[in-house]
Design goal:
heterodimer; A: mainly alpha; Cytochrome C Oxidase, Chain A; two-stranded antiparallel sheet; B: alpha+beta; Immunoglobulin-like; five-stranded mixed sheet; 4 helices; binds copper (II) ion
């Protein structure tokens, strides 16, 4: 109905109209930018939850069975302020589940992917805006189910984020493996549906909606990474979804896909059985190894763009970078067995997986060398996003190299399920991805909200995060070398690990410091949203298409028809005066047209 | 200020190496190793540690150096307008590829030794993991497991003779567990429904921790066993004691049932 329909009930009408307009603009919006920002704030809130859960874990490891000051009595009054072992088990399970499925995956693909893809390829929106909106709203059942699971009898899932059966597949196998575990499975199914919708949309948009002149090899690395990530999601997710349904059926209907026959767990008969616990591990890791790349590739893309921008120099080896992320996508599907070297899987198969896993380190090495090549001979501007991007490279080197230890099967015998792997994954996912996300927020915030974030506080945030991050996680390599196992509520009653408590206390203090530093980040976001200095279209003097739009871009993104003349990284090009060269800027008259339309080299 | 950030990044390799160098001084390092095959694993560990350590230091220092040299406020060199180098790409593809391939192949023997080439012998014992304890069962005089004359050790107590090949049949009664002997570099998940062989050879008499390394429920942390490595004579004597104890309990059990 049209707004011209004024009558006796016009007043009531216009009120409901404005509510409807509010809902369609900010809540059930079809605009990819709004959806991206919705994803961003939802995931940042869950980041807080995941972080607090981690601090609970750290408290117990530093001062086991001691009352948590102040908040302990509120949280677990039943245990007199102590963390009970079943509660501890839930803490680390939910920390990982929240961080992986509610923070990292949706913040990269959902927040940055949504916001950036149409803007960077010169489209007015996603190919399927309604599907896009649904991909956000399908996260909500997941959010609600997961939140609910904390309050059901027995509490939230406590079977580890890997949810290995039979522990997870039998209702009652562990305290907390009742309703909480089933809700966990359902929540993940919704996350999967959401990611799937996003993935289909991203692939279609990138293939179909590029602006004239935007060839595949003129796309920024962020877009390449999002594209490859979407492909990984599309092929790996159905396997996880099937596995989640199977485990749900095992729990609720006793199908026994993952449970062998004739077993009794915690006085509960496991039912008909006839299944195989290892089958779950194969299915789970067939998704979750590619998921590691889903959780890092977009970060690599974003970092590539930021490093080129702030080195004022073309990205070194653009095409090798593209080939190496494509290589990761292919190899990523044949390495999942490296999570199962100790699982009882045929050890000969372990050798094959060791070979493929070693080989997948290669693309990461190539990318690292190319990032170093990019800053070589440039003019480095030490802005907050650049510092976070450099930290990404520096930390990713550590995370990448420590992966080689686990890939080497004989060494994995000793360090599997120890803090060595905890250190490794956090160097990749926190030192890597989270640093890139921080950098990305500082970098694209002006485009999202039209205001700059505070640089000085940004640098304080960087400094504290960087120092406390390393204090927290570097020492974990040392714990791991000592054989210190993961997931133990109290490791110190073992003689082998007794002496490691002081080191754990140091780690916990650093972790608390890291948590507190994020308050600066939160404060900076909130302050800058309202009072940050207004910025123009291109505050960083960057080349890619999103910087040609107004900040923030209006509905439909571009106020002109973007036509792309060159690749995204023509910084310091001799063709122009300035040290940047927008992709949409027509070549100067008389310039060799042949050369300026050529891609890459 | 830019110099401050650059030096912060230089601290990464410096403190990184210092941490690894100083950790052993403060008693934080690989637990003592008392197994024959574990020595191989440790050797490979050091090999990869030095190799990755070198790559770590070189890449981080190069990164620091570039940050130092190409600081926009300090450098007066013109920006190198380049999109890459074919030659460099080929070098830094082939060299790491060859190195990684070598690392993988170099591990194969130790892996086969630890997990594939099972010794051909009568199993020393059967270890059954369950929430939250280890049950160990030795073959009786007939030298066969799972026969009526099997000898049961008290829960969580495992004894093996020193300097002999030990073969264990690992099973689980309920959920996944993992049989972890840090001092022998032995780890193997126990899987319900499967029997998985585990073998090692202990070289020093002492008592050691047996750790459960796979989450098995709320009591996972307390699923602790003790492994006693002793001389053949002591081991035989201990086993005979256990056999006698088993007999005694069996008698009381049968008496109890007669009484009823
Ligand atoms: Cu993996
Ligand atoms: Cu356990």
């Amino acid at each position: 109905m049209s707004a011209t329909a004024v009558g006796a009930h016009g007043h009531a009408d216009s009120q409901s109209m404005s509510i409807g307009k509010f809902l369609s603009t900010y809540v059930f919006s079809l605009d990819h930018k709004v959806i991206g920002i919705q994803f961003l704030f939802s995931t940042l809130l869950w980041f807080v939850v995941g972080g607090l859960l981690a601090l609970g874990v750290r408290w117990q490891l530093a001062w086991p069975w001691e009352d948590m000051p102040v908040i302990g009595s509120m949280l677990y009054s039943a245990e007199g302020g102590q963390i009970a072992p079943e509660f501890y088990t839930m803490l680390f399970t939910m920390h990982a589940s929240v961080m992986i499925f509610f923070v990292i995956i949706p913040i990269l693909a959902g927040a940055f992917g949504n916001f950036l893809i149409p803007l960077m390829i010169g489209a007015d929106d996603m190919a399927f805006p309604v599907l896009n909106m649904l991909s956000y709203w399908f996260m909500w059942p997941a959010f609600i189910l997961m939140t609910l699971s904390f309050f059901v009898e027995g509490g939230a899932s406590a079977a580890g984020w890997t949810s290995y059966p039979p522990l997870s597949a039998i209702a009652g196998a562990a305290p907390a493996s009742n309703a909480g575990q089933s809700l966990w499975l359902l929540a993940l199914i919704f996350v999967g549906i959401s990611s799937m919708m996003g993935s289909v949309n991203y692939m279609t948009t990138i293939i179909q909606m590029r602006a004239p002149g935007m060839t595949m090899f003129r796309m920024p690395m962020t877009i390449w990474a999002m594209f490859i990530t979407a492909i990984l999601q599309a092929f790996a997710l159905p396997v996880l979804t099937a596995a989640l349904f199977m485990q749900y059926l095992d729990r609720e209907f006793g199908t026994g896909f993952f449970v062998p026959s004739g077993y009794v767990v915690n006085n509960e008969s496991v039912g008909a059985g006839g299944g195989q616990p290892l089958l779950w591990q194969h299915l789970f890791w067939f998704y979750s190894h590619p998921a590691v790349y889903i959780m890092i590739l977009p970060a690599m893309g974003m970092v590539s763009d930021m490093i080129a921008t702030f080195s004022r120099k073309p990205l070194f080896g653009y095409k090798p970078m593209v080939y190496s992320i494509s290589g990761i996508a292919g190899l990523g599907f044949i390495v999942w067995g490296h999570h199962m070297f100790m699982s009882g899987m045929n050890p000969a198969l372990g050798m094959t997986f060791m070979l493929s896993t070693m080989m997948i380190a290669l693309p990461s090495a190539i990318k690292t060398f190319n990032w170093l090549g990019t800053i070589w001979g440039g003019k480095i501007h030490f802005t907050t996003p650049m510092l976070f991007s450099l930290a990404f490279v520096s930390m990713f080197i550590i995370g990448g190299l420590s992966g080689i230890f686990m890939a080497a099967t004989p060494i994995d015998i000793f360090i599997h399920d120890t803090y060595f792997i905890v250190a490794h994954i956090h160097y990749v996912l926190f030192g890597g991805t989270a640093m890139a996300v921080f950098g990305g927020v500082y970098f694209w915030f002006p485009k999202m909200f039209g205001r700059m974030m505070n640089e000085a506080w940004g640098k304080v945030h960087f400094f504290l995060s960087f120092v406390f991050f390393n204090g927290t996680f570097f020492a974990m390599h040392i714990l791991g070398a000592g054989g210190f196992p993961r997931r133990l509520a109290d490791p110190y009653h073992y003689e082998t690990f007794k002496h490691m408590q002081p080191l754990n206390q140091f780690i916990t203090i650093c972790a608390i410091g890291m948590g507190l530093s994020q308050l600066i980040f939160a404060g900076n976001i909130i302050y800058s949203l309202f009072w940050g200095p207004k910025c123009g279209r291109n505050p960083w003097k960057s080349n890619t298409l999103e910087w040609t739009t107004p900040s923030p871009p209006g509905h439909g993104n571009f106020d002109f028809q973007p036509i792309v003349y060159r690749g995204p990284y023509e910084y310091a090009s001799p063709e122009v005066e300035e040290d940047y060269y927008l992709q949409t800027q027509p070549p100067p008259e008389g310039a060799d047209a042949e050369q300026s339309t050529e891609d890459g080299h | 200020m830019n110099r401050f950030w650059t030096i912060l990044f230089l601290l990464v390799p410096i403190l990184g190496v210092a941490t690894f160098a100083l950790a052993p001084v403060y008693g934080h390092w690989l637990p003592d190793d008392f197994s024959e095959r574990g020595v191989n694993i440790d050797r490979l560990y050091y090999f990869i540690l030095y190799l990755t350590g070198a790559v770590f230091v070189v890449t981080e220092v190069v990164m620091f150096w570039f940050m130092w040299k190409y600081d926009a406020t300090k450098t007066d060199e013109p920006t190198k307008f380049t999109h890459g180098s074919h030659k460099l790409e080929i070098i830094w593809t082939i060299v790491p590829a060859a190195t990684l391939l070598f690392i993988a192949l170099y591990q194969m023997n130790a892996w086969a030794d630890a997990k594939i080439d099972k010794p051909d012998m009568v199993p020393t014992c059967k270890v059954v993991a369950r929430q939250f304890e280890w049950r160990i069962q030795y073959p009786g005089p007939d030298n066969e497991l799972d026969t009526p004359d099997d000898i049961y050790a008290p829960p969580n107590e495992m004894h093996v003779p020193v300097n002999e090949e030990i073969l264990i049949h690992l099973e689980s009664d309920d959920v996944l567990h993992s049989f972890f002997l840090p001092n022998f570099r032995v780890k193997q998940d126990a899987v319900p429904g499967s029997m998985i062989p585990v073998w090692f050879r202990a070289t020093e008499e002492n008592e050691y921790d047996l750790v459960c390394a796979e989450l098995c429920g709320w009591g996972h942390y307390k699923m602790k066993g003790r492994l006693t490595v002793e001389s053949r004579e002591e081991f035989d004597a201990w086993l005979a004691d256990q056999a006698r104890d088993n007999m005694a309990t069996q008698e009381t059990v049968s008496q109890d049932s007669e009484d009823q």
